[in-house]
Automatic annotation (TrEMBL):
Gene3D superfamilies: 2.60.200.40, Probable inorganic polyphosphate/atp-NAD kinase, domain 1. It comes from the Bacteria. PROSITE patterns: DAGK (PS50146). It comes from Pseudooceanicola sediminis. The lineage of its organism: Bacteria, Pseudomonadati, Pseudomonadota, Alphaproteobacteria, Rhodobacterales. Transmembrane segments: none annotated. One of its GO terms (molecular function) is kinase activity. SMART domains: DAGKc (SM00046). This is DAGKc domain-containing protein. Residues 16-145 form the DAGKc domain. It holds the Pfam family DAGK_cat.
Length: 326
């Protein structure tokens, strides 16, 4: 998502948020000493006396936790974590009058970086305090919110395999890479998809459908589609490749940022998209999370808006230049 360039549906700008602040941290990902120290430092920036820190366990009802914070007077809720945490809290806040800010504590922080927030949590807190709010529309797939991307095919399979590998060998970067290789080695055949984009229908055989809402993420990997996002559309990247060797080639080109539209993927730009898979159910990933859901998959912009905090200074905030896949 690129809110600095896009003009979202029913957009509105306001002065900075005033009032009580609630920080919601993911207990599963925010328990290490580094994150705890970062939250302590950002509380000092926000004002410890007026900041309420609440921990969320993914087994808890996040909607109820967010509503409790709003009922207690919160005017700003800060999501402390990575893209998955930001996505979950944004989903609970959609349509409310409370503003959302993101404290980047995850591995990739694509959403926070797309907002031009610094990756240093303390600097991000300063930028939030000096920022302003804007109402935006967010992407949805079968009524589930996503902020950066959603996908079908090989990528959700990689995420599933990664969980298995992590459970056995631990959360190490080498294991993440091995999960990619193992998934490719197990690859059988591409998906058969029927894609209807803004009323136009086409049939495609592909190993991957990637639906993007983050121009920042596309730019970082040298992929096209940013203009569609600037015009509040989805950028659909339909991968080309039917064999394991072609998948490895695509992966290498993605890592080296040499993928080309037309040769490696087809780009479809649309606001309303329906994707029907040959199988009755399929694995879908959204912002790093995943679920098995029934076809067809409907991608659309949210009717309700999300009020987010943007930094006033949109200059380069020192984000890192190197990335790996989410």
């Amino acid at each position: 998502m690129d809110v600095s360039a896009a003009e979202p549906t029913r957009s509105a700008q306001h002065p900075g948020v005033e009032g009580p602040i609630t920080i919601i941290a993911n207990r599963k990902s925010g328990t290490n000493a580094r994150d705890a120290d970062a939250i302590d430092r950002t509380q000092a920036v926000f004002g410890a006396q007026s900041t309420d820190l609440r921990y969320w366990d993914p087994e808890q009802d996040l909607d109820a936790l967010v509503q409790d914070a709003i009922d207690d007077g919160a005017r700003l809720i800060v999501a402390a974590g990575g893209d998955g945490t930001a996505m979950a809290i944004a989903s609970a806040m959609l349509g409310t009058n409370c503003a959302l800010a993101v404290l980047p504590l995850g591995t990739f922080n694509y959403f926070a970086r797309g907002l031009n927030l610094p990756e240093d949590p303390e600097a991000a807190a300063e930028a939030i305090m000096n920022g302003y709010t804007r109402d935006i529309s967010v992407g949805m797939v079968n009524d589930r919110v996503f902020l950066n991307n959603a996908s079908l095919g090989i990528y959700p399979a990689i995420l599933k395999e990664r969980e298995t590998v992590y459970a056995r060998w631990g959360r190490r970067r080498l294991m993440a890479h091995w999960s990619v290789v193992k998934t490719f080695l197990q690859f059988q055949r591409p998906m058969h998809l029927t894609i209807t984009a803004d009323g136009e229908t086409c049939e495609r055989r592909t190993p991957l459908l990637f639906v993007a809402r983050s121009a920042f993420q596309l730019e970082r990997f040298g992929l096209t589609g940013g203009d569609a996002i600037h015009h509040d559309q989805f950028a659909l990247l339909v991968g080309r490749g039917t064999t394991r060797s072609e998948l490895f080639t695509l992966a290498w080109r993605l890592i080296t940022r040499t993928m080309q539209e037309g040769r490696d993927y087809e780009l479809i730009c649309a606001r309303d998209v329906t994707v029907k898979t040959a199988k009755r159910r399929a694995l879908v990933a959204f912002d790093g999370e995943k679920t098995r859901d029934y076809s067809p998959f409907e991608f659309k912009m949210s009717d309700d808006t999300l009020k987010i905090v943007l930094p006033t200074d949109k200059a380069d905030s020192g984000n890192a230049e190197s990335d790996t896949t989410e």
